[in-house]
Amino acid sequence: MGVAAGRRREALAGYSTAAGARKLAAMTSDSEAATAKIEADIEALKPRLRDTLAAWLDATAPWVAGRWEETLETAIAYNPDAVKALGDEKRKALKERTTKMIASPRPLVEKRLVEDHPEAWPHLRGPDDRWDPEETFATKTERVGSRKLQTTPSEVSSLLESVLSDMGDLLEGEGFNLVRFLPGSAFSRSQRPRVAAGPSLAWSDQMMRTMNAYGQLTTAYVGALKELEKVQAERARSEAEELWGKA
Predict the structure, then answer these.
(1) Long-range contact list for 11-17, CB < 8 A, 24+ apart?
(2) Position with higher pLDDT, 152 vs 245
(3) Domain count of the chain?
(4) I need a surface site. Which of 87, 131, 145, 210 has the fewest CB within 10 A?
(5) Residue 152 and residue 124: Cα distance in Å, rounded?
(6) Which residue has better confidence, 134 or 75?
(7) How many other CB atoms are found less than 10 A from the CB of residue 91?
(8) Does residue 2 form part of some domain?
(9) Is residue 110 part of a domain?
(10) Domain around 174
(11) Spatial CB neighbours of 210, under 8 Å, sequence gap ≥ 6
């Protein structure tokens, strides 16, 4: 502690000399160059992150639509009375809405996963959004006997379960009784995902590959942000020492 404090005092005193001023100017120039390079690297990564996330959404949307369709078909089979009770006008409107969801899932999937939750994606986060140092977007698939075990990003998986439940939530709002076929507890209205029992909820291979690619880019992006923060902190410290030395 004493040695470090002594060196710091020497540095502060040194800034009051001409040589110290020249040294600080060189340090400032180096810091500005380093900052500019890191900022350029960050900006170059953003479109790559955006495109890779778009590729994941392209793979995810039809997968979600398939789960929605299975839930719709099961709900109709288990709720014939609810179908009849809708009446012609409401039944037609509901069919049009569910058909559109299944046929063109991409806009809704992107809205629900990205536009409504920009904080979930590192390249879309604002300066005040939280950062988890343990966060990872890496994916992994392992086979244990006949079972396929997947590791997927926890927050993304949670958001995706909510999107998968959109069809069930819509149908329940129209009088369909989902607890007749939902897996697990028949008493939990907050159960996620609210989809028909049976079909696998494992991500497709393309979903796994594109999310893993996003994860690799994210590692580079977050690393660059941390390095930028470090350089900026050092520069601010040097500037403060210069001001103090000149006082």
Answers:
(1) 11/241, 12/241, 12/244, 12/245, 13/245, 14/245, 15/241, 15/242, 15/244, 15/245, 15/246, 16/245, 16/246
(2) 152
(3) 1
(4) 145
(5) 20
(6) 75
(7) 15
(8) no
(9) yes
(10) 53-225
(11) 52, 55, 56, 58, 59
Q: Which amino acid is at 186?
A: A
Q: Which two tokens stand for residue 62?
A: 């039809």
| Side-chain-side CA neighbours of residue 117 (13 Å) | 16
Token pair listed for 100: 């559109």
3-state SS assignment for residue 153: coil
DSSP letters of 17-81?
SHHHHHHHHHHHHHHHHHHHHHHHHHHHHHHHHHHHHHHHHHHHHHHHHHHHHHHHHHHHHH-HH
Confirm whether 180 is domain-assigned: yes
Q: What is the DSSP string of 191-243?
A: -SS---SSS--PPPHHHHHHHHHHHHHHHHHHHHHHHHHHHHHHHHHHHHHHH
Is residue 15 a part of any domain in this protein? Answer: no
Return the amino acid letter for 136: T
Residue type, 210: T
Q: Which residue has the tokens 């709720």?
A: 79
In which band, very low, low, confident or very high, does the pLDDT at 239 lie, cut at 50, 70 and 90? confident
